[in-house]
Write a structure and sequence with these properties.
Layout: H1 3-12, H2 21-27, H3 69-79, E1 92-101, H4 113-116, E2 122-130, E3 145-153, E4 156-163, H5 176-183, H6 199-207, H7 212-219, E5 233-234, E6 239-242, E7 248-257, H8 266-275, H9 279-289, E8 295-304, E9 330-340, H10 344-349, E10 362-364, H11 368-385, H12 463-471, H13 474-489, H14 494-505, H15 509-519, E11 555-559, H16 566-578, E12 582-587, E13 592-593, E14 602-603, E15 606-607, E16 618-621, H17 625-633, H18 635-646, E17 650-654, H19 656-664, E18 674-677, E19 684-688, H20 696-705
Parallel strand pairs: 11-12, 11-16, 12-15, 16-17
Antiparallel strand pairs: 1-2, 1-9, 2-3, 3-4, 5-7, 6-7, 6-10, 7-8, 8-9, 13-14, 17-19, 18-19
Helix pairs in contact: 1-2, 5-6, 6-14, 7-12, 13-15, 14-15, 17-19
Bound molecules: CIS-heme D hydroxychlorin gamma-spirolactone 17R, 18S.
Length: 709
């Protein structure tokens, strides 16, 4: 065994915090650069001057010379740095981690060791993305988020190329180019970027009612997640599992975040787009680097092959969920992200997912969206990365690869063999049976007429859109009305905004009326379709509040100015930090701030103008008379606090800080404050938390961290 193979082998059996087999595999290609290392050309010759192009009559007026091969190489490499961005999901960020089986009950359904062998730690690479915007667009736009997972299993790579929403806009892959053209910037002016608030998207959605269910999800709070770490992930399409007895089940894959499912408010999302367009990607890497490893439960829903037709909806229709009441979730695994990438381009940009990448024990269904996807992903990687894209370090499997496929542009692997075909006299690269690990497709009986058509159950589009709407909490419904109202207000063609009201009226009469009034639509006088009042579990985000709310990795701004009480602040900061919240001191300048007399100087991390309340989950205002007077005179700070209050953030204040808070956010006739005591002290703390915006965990957890009695 070579030393690389030995270290690869060792890595596969190591503990959580140690590198996975894939991370070790990547070491072969990682070049650690050292201080004072010498610059060379790409062909390895040391470079003497990288700042001046060779020319005649140096520093006078001589022309630059074509002969300068160092200058030419530098510019030539630069000219070719860009590759085509992904046609959708161009904006994204990725991380390494691992997958573990926590319950081996899936062996009833599959013989795939990745889902059944609890002694394994399978390396993964996950890429999160937005869909509509280009590579440089902002993170917190209203959009679906991609949730693509590459499992580097011992049986080959398995990709779940999922989203944070369990259904899709269309039922048949052949509609995908139409859908993407409609949502992407319009052809005549390339507008808008990173949003679906325009004529063409809503025009398409109105005329293609199968999108109604998904539109409801994207317009709900799901469209503006607080963090990639706080989103669910769904395989969306129906796959199949095959067990050792040769029995087949249909399956849906779910990832459920341990932190709960949380969203931004739309106003926050809009502002963060400008204040920090990299908000989500920074959030992910900061959490991983601080050891707060994002973790998801992995669950499956299964339906035996024999029960395929037992449901009101078609289980192969990607615009439908399988309600949990009918098909319960079984938790079988855990996904953890524990390592950021070393270099963005070769890892996150060059990673290439394919729904067609499955391993023995896992297979496809006849879901018409999945069938098309199985062609599309493989195809698109060729124009993005070239035919040998599966040899790129991030994409190559960790198990042995031997195929008779050869050549093509940018072949990396060097294969030492006299034969590259099968059969051959040396028996190299021979296919093996299923018993020996070969991938054997399930033998499925088919009969019927070849035609261009969809099954009868694919014709119904509104019942699950209604189920979703009915299952939302009142505040979630209100957010949804505002979101559709915002989007339709950005459509200038009245045909578009007026006609979508008809779609909404098929979902819910009150919803249609509320939106119509907002956007100048025709207010309906009777429901387009009765609302049956049915609800289901797991659709509202409130169903995902974590059992033990936590402030781990939440961002807390501590507002300070000269004369603040540093001793008290340090006590609170220590409590928050020990609960693994991340505290930032925000002051009038990024420099030393002078606390009360007799206390040591404190250095502020940022100044009031450089950050905004929207970038934080909670605020704490320490006591100090002079300090509070200074805060009250600063319009930016007053805005900070009012804005945080308006966004229902947790706000803690002590002593004079409480008076300041009261003055700043006073609403006539309403006393919103609940004064309480910090345990073991005489300080009065005021805290205010709101359950209904999905920020329950932060508000209650700040309260816990402060030990408020
Ligand atoms: Fe994709 N999709 N998609 N998609 N998709 C791509 O593949 C496509 C669909 C999803 O981080 C492309 O490598 C078709 C559903 C994610 O690299 C492309 C159809 C779901 C990513 C493509 C769909 C997704 C992509 C563009 C309809 C959720 C980003 C670049 C039949 C389950 C993966 C690429 C990454 C990317 C095609 C529908 C998720 C063009 C034809 C449904 C997360 O191949």
């Amino acid at each position: 065994m070579s030393s690389i193979e030995q270290s690869v082998e060792k890595a596969f059996t190591t503990m959580a915090s140690e590198p996975t087999k894939k991370v070790v595999d990547l070491q072969r290609d990682i070049q650690e650069q050292q201080a004072h290392q010498v610059l060379t050309t790409d062909h390895g010759v040391k470079v003497a001057d990288t700042d001046n192009w060779r020319c005649t009559e140096s520093k006078k007026n001589g022309p630059s010379l074509l002969e300068d091969q160092i200058g030419r190489e530098k510019i030539h490499r630069f000219d070719h740095e860009r590759i085509p961005e992904r046609v959708v999901h161009a904006r994204g960020t990725g991380a390494h981690g691992y997958f573990e089986v926590v319950d081996d009950r899936a062996s009833k359904y599959t013989f795939a060791p990745v889902l059944t062998d609890s002694s394994r730690k399978t390396p993964v690479f996950v890429r999160f993305s937005t869909v509509q915007g280009s590579r440089g667009s902002a993170d917190t736009v209203r959009d679906v988020r991609g949730f693509a997972v590459k499992f580097y299993t011992e049986e080959g790579n398995w990709d779940i190329v999922g989203n944070d929403i369990p259904v899709f806009f269309i039922q048949d892959a052949i509609k995908f180019p139409d859908f993407v053209h409609a949502v992407k910037p319009e052809p005549h002016n390339d507008v808008p970027q990173g949003q679906s608030a325009h004529n063409n998207f809503w025009d398409f959605a109105g005329l293609q009612p199968e999108s109604a269910h998904m539109v409801m999800w994207v317009m709900s709070d799901r469209g503006v997640p607080r963090s990639f770490r706080m989103m669910q992930g769904f395989g969306v399409n129906t796959f199949t599992l095959l067990n050792a007895a040769g029995e087949r089940h249909f399956v849906k894959f779910h990832f459920i975040p341990e932190l709960g499912v949380h969203s931004l408010l739309w106003d926050e999302a809009l502002k963060i787009n400008g204040q920090d367009p990299d908000f989500h990607r920074k959030d992910l890497s900061e959490a991983i680097e601080s050891g707060a490893y994002p973790t998801w439960k992995f669950a499956i829903q299964t339906i035996p092959q024999s029960e395929e037709h037992k449901f009101e909806f078609d289980i192969l229709d990607a615009t439908k969920v399988w309600p949990q009441e009918l098909v319960p979730l079984e938790e079988i695994g855990k996904l953890v992200l524990n390592r950021v990438v070393d270099e963005f381009f070769p890892e996150t940009e060059q990673v290439a997912f394919c729904t067609s990448h499955v391993v023995p024990g896992i297979g496809f269904s006849n879901d018409p969206l999945l069938q098309g996807r199985n062609f599309s992903y493989f195809d698109t990687q060729i124009s993005r990365l070239g035919i040998n894209w599966e040899e790129l370090p991030i994409n190559r499997p960790v198990c042995p690869v031997l195929s008779h496929n050869r050549d093509g542009k940018s072949r990396h692997r060097i294969v030492k063999s006299e034969v590259n075909y099968w059969p051959n006299r040396k028996n190299i690269g021979c296919p093996v049976s299923g018993e020996k690990g070969g991938y054997v497709e399930y033998a499925e009986k088919l009969e019927g007429i070849k035609q261009r058509a969809r099954g009868p159950k694919f014709q119904e589009h509104f019942s699950q859109a209604q189920l979703f709407y009915n299952s939302l909490a009142a505040y979630e419904k209100a957010h949804l009305v505002s979101a559709i109202g915002f989007e339709l207000s950005h459509c200038e063609d009245s045909v578009v905004y007026k006609s979508y009201i008809d779609v909404l009226n098929n979902i819910d009469f009150d919803l249609a009326k509320a939106v119509a009034i907002k956007v100048n639509g025709e207010v309906p006088t009777k429901p387009g379709r009765a609302n049956d009042g049915k609800k289901s579990k797991g659709l509202s985000q409130l169903d995902f509040l974590p059992k033990n709310p936590t402030i781990v990795s939440r961002r807390i701004a501590i507002l300070i100015s000269d004369g603040f009480n540093a001793v008290e602040m340090e006590a609170v900061r220590a409590a928050l930090t020990s609960a693994k919240a991340v505290c930032y001191l925000i002051g009038p300048r990024r420099n030393h701030i002078r606390p009360m007399a007799g206390q040591d100087l404190v250095f502020a991390d940022h100044h009031f103008d450089s950050q905004r309340s929207t970038l934080f989950d909670a605020i704490y205002i320490p006591s100090g008379e002079e300090h509070v007077k200074t805060l009250a005179k600063n319009g930016r700070v007053v805005h900070w606090v009012r804005e945080a209050f308006g966004h229902c953030k947790a706000i803690a204040a002590v002593g004079e800080g409480v008076d300041f808070l009261r003055d700043v956010v006073r609403l006539p006739g309403i006393d919103l404050f609940v004064p309480s005591r910090v345990q073991g002290s005489d300080e009065v703390v005021t805290s205010y938390g709101v359950v209904t915006t999905g920020k329950y965990s932060i508000s209650s957890a700040v309260t816990d961290a402060l030990n408020i009695a």
